[in-house]
Design brief:
Helices cover about 30% and strands about 25% of the residues. The protein is globular and about 60 Å long. The protein has an 8-stranded mixed β-sheet with strand order 3-4-2-1-5-6-8-7. It is α/β, with parallel strands linked by helices. The protein is built from 9 helices and 14 strands. Helix 1 packs across helix 9. A hairpin with a 2-residue loop joins strand 13 and strand 14.
Length: about 325
């Protein structure tokens, strides 16, 4: 790509994260000579990319991506795996890896945790995995606080973690319950309920592996994952015991990439975080240690990390 603008493909342009990437390409004036939007089942639709409205084409074969320099894969893992295995040629930025442990040969990267030089050196033909934003936020905090001791974190996932279908399910169940007509067969009640999803064990192992690959020590980190009845947003409650550097923690968080530190009295809820470019973060300190609360828009942060990779490759 040296000396010219990149040719960009976005696969999954109509999805929750894909539409965010298309929006960011326009917002950040990302330089490209060609931008092609793809979806597997939504051809014929139009998606906004900045001030442009672009058509979405059906992706019939991974080889259709061979003409591009960078391809975003904002699609389910099984579909992304087919493209990655085919090795069509461009640098692949895989957003489906967010709920899986890192794979051999795939570089899991994130701003503030990965050197830009490493991304440039790997370059074309490499697959770059975008971590789950919860793993990225926890890794950032553990790194900046230089914490290698015991820590515990509870990760709260909203309905949007399951995509459009999860949001629709929460809406429908909420309406049915309020109208006294909710009938459940084998599916869990997601409305007005907080519970551990069936995949909680797999997710905790995957997130711990991602945190470790991103450079933070997760050997003494306990993770718990729950589903909460919110439409959008993700939360992390992180607990750290006190050490001799506790007095510097608040200032270190303020300088950390991707964190928006607020005072205790300021709003830091899921609704406040939607559309933000970082995790709204609040720290409470006492003699026992710290309770750190983060609320963020997971789709937005994942899209921003993917854009950071693309911008680094295009420099």
């Amino acid at each position: 790509m040296a000396g010219r603008e990149a040719r960009i493909a976005l696969v999954g342009a109509t999805g929750t994260v894909g539409s965010q990437i298309a929006e960011l390409i326009g917002e950040r004036n990302f330089p490209y000579s060609d931008l092609k939007l793809f979806a597997r089942d939504s051809s014929g639709r139009m998606v906004e990319a900045g001030e442009r409205s672009l058509p979405v084409a059906r992706l019939n074969s991974a080889q259709e991506l061979s003409a591009f320099d960078i391809a975003f894969l904002a699609i389910p893992s099984y579909a992304a795996a087919e493209i990655i295995e085919a090795q069509p040629g461009p640098a692949l930025i895989d957003l489906s890896a967010a709920t899986f442990p890192p794979h051999d040969g795939v570089a899991m990267v994130a701003p503030g945790l990965t050197a830009r030089d490493r991304i440039v050196q790997l370059g074309r033909g490499q697959t770059f995995a975008v971590p789950h934003p919860a793993a990225q936020v926890i890794a950032t905090i553990l790194q900046v606080l230089r914490s290698g001791g015991f820590a515990a974190a509870s990760i709260m996932l909203s309905a949007s973690a399951a995509g459009h279908s999860g949001v629709s399910e929460l809406f429908q169940q909420s309406a049915d319950l309020l109208n006294a007509r909710l009938e459940l067969d084998d599916e869990p009640q997601v409305s007005f309920n907080v519970f551990a999803p069936q995949s909680a064990g797999e997710l905790t192992r995957a997130f711990a592996a991602q945190i470790r690959v991103l450079g933070a020590d997760s050997s003494r980190l306990m993770l718990d994952i729950v589903r909460v009845p919110a439409f959008h947003g993700t939360g992390v409650a992180l607990f750290l015991p006190a050490n001799e550097e506790k007095g510097e923690w608040a200032e270190r968080l303020r300088s950390a990439p991707g964190l928006i530190v607020v005072a205790n009295e300021d709003a830091a809820g899921f609704v406040d975080a939607v559309g933000q470019g970082g995790a709204i973060t609040r720290i409470s300190l006492d003699d026992a240690g710290a309770a750190i609360w983060c609320a963020f828009d997971a789709a937005r942060l994942a899209a921003l990390t993917a854009m950071w990779v693309a911008e680094t490759l295009s420099e």
